[in-house]
Specification:
With about 240 residues, this protein is an alpha/beta fold. About 45% of the residues lie in helices and about 10% in strands. The chain contains ten helices and six strands, in the order βαααααβααβαβαββα. A six-stranded parallel beta sheet has the order 3-2-1-4-5-6, sandwiched between helices. The radius of gyration is 18 Å and the shape is globular. Bound molecules: xylulose-1,5-bisphosphate and magnesium ion (MG). The site of magnesium ion has 7 residues, from loops.
Length: about 240
């Protein structure tokens, strides 16, 4: 790592926790309740994850994938997504997720050392609250100095909007930051903002192309981290 970062910018889904199976179940739950006759199996969901954001994913599916073309308008999709978010948040509040191995340690050490932390995620702010509350016993704002969430930008990942928002809100240069991501679209988003990126692939993204990553780590546990990040956090 040529420059030691002053700010670590975390993705949420797949990076802080393996969340996508829970998102998938919440989508399917709502589809069933609404008798849509849609079901996203794991293989299909893996493909759909190329589209960031739940609303965008539903819209893409309706337009490009399903043969039952039920004409849902943007209002319907927003309502479905709102219900999905309520179900997902409720499960997370009740402890359905744990952090990926190594994440608790990285975040605790960074806070001890006054290293600034930020979030750049396509997911909604309302999904982040139960995650930090159940895994850290804290509000997101008590851990992260900046929360760039999907609801705040026009274009979600792979566009660079979320990372650019973090740079703008914290008045930072890209070279002062390190992004931590799990997917190709996340990597593209961070690199689009010229931010050095460490990738640790999550389960759904093991086979993604990470050629442009500055660091590729099998896991986020201490021994797998790049030397400079280990020095920054653990010495
Ligand atoms: C991953 C996503 C999210 C979730 C669904 O975001 O694409 O859209 O799958 O979340 P990231 P919502 O990896 O950037 O954290 O339903 O809240 O949109
Ligand atoms: Mg992710």
């Amino acid at each position: 790592m040529k420059n030691i970062p002053s700010t670590l910018i975390f993705d949420v889904d797949g990076t802080l926790a393996e969340t996508e199976e829970l998102h998938r179940k919440a989508f399917n739950d709502v589809f069933k309740k609404r008798r849509l006759k849609w079901h996203w199996n794991k293989s299909l969901y893996g493909q759909l994850l190329r589209i960031a954001g739940g609303k965008e994913r539903i819209k893409f599916y309706q337009t490009n994938v399903t043969c039952h073309k039920i004409p849902l308008n943007d209002g319907d999709i927003s309502l479905i997504h709102k219900e999905k978010t309520q179900i997902y948040s409720h499960w997370v509040e009740n402890g359905a997720l744990t952090l990926r191995p190594g994440i608790h340690c990285i975040i605790t050490k960074a806070l001890e050392k006054n290293i600034r932390l930020a979030i750049a995620t396509s997911t909604s702010y309302s999904n982040l609250i139960p995650l930090t509350q159940s895994c850290f016993g804290k509000k997101p704002e008590e851990i992260f100095s900046c929360l760039a969430t999907g609801n705040l930008v026009r274009k979600k990942k792979p566009a660079a909007d979320l990372y650019n928002l973090v740079l703008q809100k914290l008045s930072l240069e890209p070279k002062e930051c390190l992004a931590i991501e799990d997917s190709r679209i996340g990597l593209m988003s961070a690199k689009g903002a010229n931010i050095r990126t460490m990738v640790s692939p999550s389960l759904y993204h093991i086979k993604d192309d990470f050629t442009e990553a500055d660091h590729l780590c099998e896991s986020l546990e201490e021994e797998q981290l790049p030397e400079e990040l280990r020095q920054l956090l653990f010495q």
